Amino acid sequence: MDQSAPIFGFNAARESLVRDVVERVVDSSQDPLFYLNDAAYNEIKRLESSRKKKDVERLGEWQRLARSIGRMSQAERVEKLRELATDYGWDVAGNFNPRVYKLSTKVLPGLVTGLLAPRTLATLAQNPRELVSLDALSDKVKVEGPIEKLQKLCNRGVMVYVPTHLSNMDSIVFGYALERAGLPPATYGAGKNLFTNPILSFFMHNLGAYRVDRRLRHALYKDVLKAYSCVLLERGYHSLFFPGGTRSRSGGIERRLKLGLVGSALEAYARSVRAGRERRVFFVPSTINYVITLEAETLIRDYLSETGKSRYIIEDDESSRLGRMVAFIRKLLGMEGAVVIRFGEPMDPFGNSVDDNGDSYDRRGRKVDPSRYVRDASGNAVVDPARDAQYTRELGEEITKAYVRETVILSTHVVAAACFARLRKAAPRPDLFTVLRQRDTLTIPRDELAADVRNLKDQLVEKEKRGEVVCSEFVRAASGGDLIEHALRAFNGYHETPVLVPRREGIAVFDPELLFYYQNRLVPYGFAWDAIGYGPTAVKPSAPNAAAPSLGGAR
Amino acid sequence: MTLKVGVVGGGPWGIALARAVARTGADVTMHTRREAKDGRLIKITQRYEDIGRCQLIVLAVPSNVVREVARGIGDHLDGSHLIVHGIRGLAPIDMHLPGETPADKADALHTVSDVLREETPVRRLGALGGPVQADELHHGTASALVVGSHYPEVTSAVTRAFNGPWLRVYSTHDLKGLELSSAMVGCMAVGVGFAKESGAGPGLLAALISRAVHDAGRLAVIAGAEEPTIYGLGGYGDLLSSIALDKRPEVIFGRALAQGKSVGAAVEAATLRVEAVALIPRLVAFARAHSVQAPAFEGLARMLEGHKPEEILGKFFQG
Questions:
Q1: How far is B33 from chain A (nearest CA, A)?
Q2: Cα-Cα end-to-end distance for chain A
Q3: What is the mean pLDDT of chain A?
Q4: pLDDT at position A132
Q5: Domain that residue B270 falls in
Q6: Which of A61, A417, A442, B153 has its CA at a distance of 20 to 30 angstroms from the CA of residue B134?
Q7: Whether A404 and B104 lie within 8 Å, measured CB to CB
Q8: What is the mean pLDDT of residues B229-247?
Q9: Which of B173, B206, B238 is the C-terminal boundary of a domain?
Q10: Same structural domain for residues B51 and B13?
Q11: Between the CA atoms of B93, B98, B102 and B103, what dihedral angle is there, to the nearest 10 degrees?
Q12: Into how many domains does chain B fold?
């Protein structure tokens, strides 16, 4: 594959990159006093409650700084700011090791397959060439979308992938999808907590991930992060952001996005136009669809629990337990089309569609010059944060619409929605929490459920014809009964409690919470109960996502 | 450098806006299909490409032709242009945006700026509203205008184009709120004419108006706007001016209805297009679809249906 993407020379460029970031942050800070005070205030607040020795030391340093900021001269403040920005810059800077990249994308899938399925391993031992083949995964993990177009576009500008976010597996899975699609790797910001997760960090550490410490809430850190992302894009590094901010707790498709990093891509474009060397930016809304989600249990319980609002960093979920991880991968490898990564149609930073050559077209199909959007009336390119924040908001709306169009519906979503609708009808009261308490109170006769599933599926297929959603190949072709069997197979054996239990009288509903999680995927289409506040008229029980940290000020 | 402003629409409102801009010294071109009258300060054109040469474009056409006009000028515009419209209606009812979820689709109140977003490559959009009346703009008597836009560049261009010793430009970032306010005030002005003609005293008139504004605020929030906008210049401010202004087409229309005229005859009496005729039933449907109480708008709908004042008032007081 093409090894000319800038990421292959990343390590050499790292020092100058961090230097650029620091310069930019220091230059743009008109008020160092505010920056320092804000950082000190937030850090002291965060560290005060910690008992860890390291944190106590840090707390002392911040308290000393807080006391002395007022007495410092302006030059001293700028110096201190530079020092902090440099520390944060290096903390954020990731690493990219082409050797590890090759190993993990080429060998690991085969290796994982082998390790998890002893019989395959025996065959592989006789024919080691298959070990380095990606084909082992190809029928389990589907990669679809306008791939040839994206391949062309990568040479005409910088790609910004903005997928939906369900699982900590996402960045690995997406990295694999890029490789499979013949697209160069992308850098991304991964939560710093993930680097301490022994399983994930092995995959991520050297795959071009930079570190995002979500505990740090102050403006200085956020600006370093945004500047870092912006500088990477200006230098042509393809990037991956999860605009949902955190994994979807409800299992639903994201509607409210955190746009800080998306905004940095817009800024990178405006800066490139201003500098007279326009580098086009192509946003690729994408969806990552799992027949079952690794962390479904933790996530939905977090969504439903009161503490959901504060626990935006979950340190100990399924992704940190090796046994669960192995069970999950084993499950996925046992099912065809268990994961579907779908790239959507690319768009420019202003929501215009883009053709193979990277030219932009408005909704009426007129060819437009994207650089005109960052120019004023006299044709001068300007970087205007207020204007760009609004462009970013509008782009965010386009991305959420694309999510709805490009989501791939799998058997578990349809079956969960059908069961949950029945459960809601059968519940003594129709409010969410009453319905969720109905554990093993309802058994649905198979033929009735099959008819419901069939009906739902037919409507989804109709919608698909209008380009409003995508159904997996299996969903499209299967009968109601087949879909139920497929979903049963997916649910059972991985989740700790069975979601649905087949009995002689029919299908027993065992875990309403997980059903709720999987049915939520269908909410935007009007085929599932909207208890997650997706639609404008829905009554919100709570909105855990709203409390997650924003990486940028744009909202 | 002088700002180049293009006004599209040669009706009384378009001419008034063009004259107001010309008064501040900006370079004004007006697109009109009618015979050109005012050729000294305002350049008159019948070609859209001349509008494309302007930086700020002001749209003053009726809402039923806005899509067609926007598509026409859209061919001559690009991402660097700024467009504001001064249309007191909403987008044509058949409008559905691509990718809308079913929940959005339920009688969504799309605005004219949504149409402009669809039909032109321009993103930096805004709307004009507020208490200023065509006559005041026309003759340069002191008044206040409101611009709504998410883009500071639009706000500052409109300020440059219109602000002067006799016209103060206020701004809001709540574009949708301003568009809905202008549209809903147009409807309420019909009620003002109707109530006045039916002999309502100042106390009753004030009560009706306050209740109506309250309804409007609820509807605006459901439609995605901010409630305070309706209580500001673009809402209450605009409505107060229509109480005082007997010549406003909506007020004339309302009076005619109270005299027992049919909707058709009342429209004729108003001489200018009354957006409220189509809007009122739409707002009522919207309120019902979202289970929001809007007794004042239900009352307005009854006016259009030819009910008697006492009957309407009786229903209204029951609610």
A1: 24
A2: 39
A3: 83
A4: 38
A5: 176-318
A6: B153
A7: no
A8: 90
A9: B173
A10: yes
A11: -80
A12: 2
